[in-house]
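Recap for those who missed Tuesday's class. We walked through two folding examples back to back. For each one, the amino acid string is listed first and its predicted structure tokens come directly after. Nothing is annotated here on purpose, so try labeling regions yourself before you check the end of the notes.
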Amino acid sequence: MIEPSTVRFVSAALYGGWAVALFAAVRLKRPAARRYCYPFVAVVAAASVLVAARGAGIGAVPVGTGELVLPQTVSDYATYPLLFGFAAFVAGASRRYIGVVVATILLMRTAYDVADVADGTVGLAATAAIVVGYALLALLYFGPVAAAARRRSPRRALFYRKTRNLVLFVFGILITWAMLQLFGVFDAFTQAVTLEYIDFILRVGFAGFVIANAETLLDDEGEADATAGTDRADSGSGTAPTAAD
């Protein structure tokens, strides 16, 4: 059987190749749109290093009845807030709602760590927190965050809906995987392959999606600039002297 470390080394190489390809794609975008893309390229590049570290057995710390894998933890804690916070940002949600989204996903990730290393009531409570957190994210994304998106340009509102659906769908699969893993359903090889596949789709797939649609985020900026220009013109026409004066 193929060792899990081999799976992770192959995954790390794929991340590295895609990081280069995604960076090249970003350079083809307008400069104003690139700033939205670079963080996602950085996530993919960092995943290459962190997955390789995990493949080499670096950073596995025994805790309680399980272990805390530091490379995976670092990658997840950096990636999930970015992805979910960005979805709320695309909608034009307020900082408060973006903050609630980010805090929720961080609490969910922390709850997974607790459930992985704790038994009994604590482990069950942490598992329940993951499910409750996902439900809260869905309520936010389909409620106040979606309402904010409807006040944006049609293209940006569509971009939000696609972004929301992508993160909720892939993360729903990841939660299902986590539950199966917590109950010991997977062997070591299956666990490694399925996790790397889901993580790869979440990071590389999301990065590619953002890069393909990044210029949509400039729609409202253009409208704001046009409105500001019109306001300045109107103001100037109201104060300039006329021949009659």
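Example two. Treat it independently of the first, because the proteins are unrelated.
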Amino acid sequence: MVLGSLDKNIIAEYYSSYAKLHSTSKGFISNLLSDMDECILKERAENEYEIKFKILEEGLRIQEYLYRFEDSFTRSSRYLVDRVQECTNMTSYFFTDQEKEYSIFKYKNETMLKIKKHRIIEGDQFPIFVNEELFHTKSSEIISQIMQPAIIYKGRMVKHRIKDFIVDTIDGRVYSLAVTICEASGKLQYQLEVEYSGYIKGYGPFIENHENQIIESLEGLASFVYSNLKKVITPDTQRKFEFVIASTDYDSIEEIIDFSKQKILKEEFGVV
């Protein structure tokens, strides 16, 4: 297919053709971009835009949740699902200086420090996370941040996540639809997360770096998901950090807080 300026009809045609050739939509975004000699771009890269839902039904396999949640997209002409089913399992260690949240984890065998400052705004239908994020991967940067005296260790969490990606054919923005099951101190948190991931160039209604348009499109997708899943999900604002805090027995964690941060960096992540 020859691709010029994209619109919803062209990308829908590409999506259908790709699915017929490959018997699945898996990977259609990357192949579309390859054919266009383009890549996913992201506006306002320092920010995270996300809407969270609590999953009310527990006990299913993580893949089963994703399959169930995506069933409604088969009836949508606006939203196209790229079923990559990207799975990650990671252990995160959380710290705070009372203003920001710090977490260290391994992602694709690389040790990463994420520094996050949270902000929640009220959308028309849902609370929306508009968070500032900064990542460090160099050992020297991780050490210099975490070893600051004001930064205190608060606990750890094991996160299991599976996600697919969704293209909004109205403006070409791409979102992730992720199911996370997290465990901290024997307690579990089940969430569905809808998050802005980037955009595909070429859509007429698209206005780059227009935060209101990003938020409106995100909320439109979240509204579509929620309208089909009201019996099994409900809007949520609990952060992973808050879940760890709520789950941790601080009478027994004193000895963990007392041991050195160097021990976590060295023994868990090989950062010295």
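Answers for example two:
The mean pLDDT is 89.
The two ends are 52 Å apart (CA to CA).
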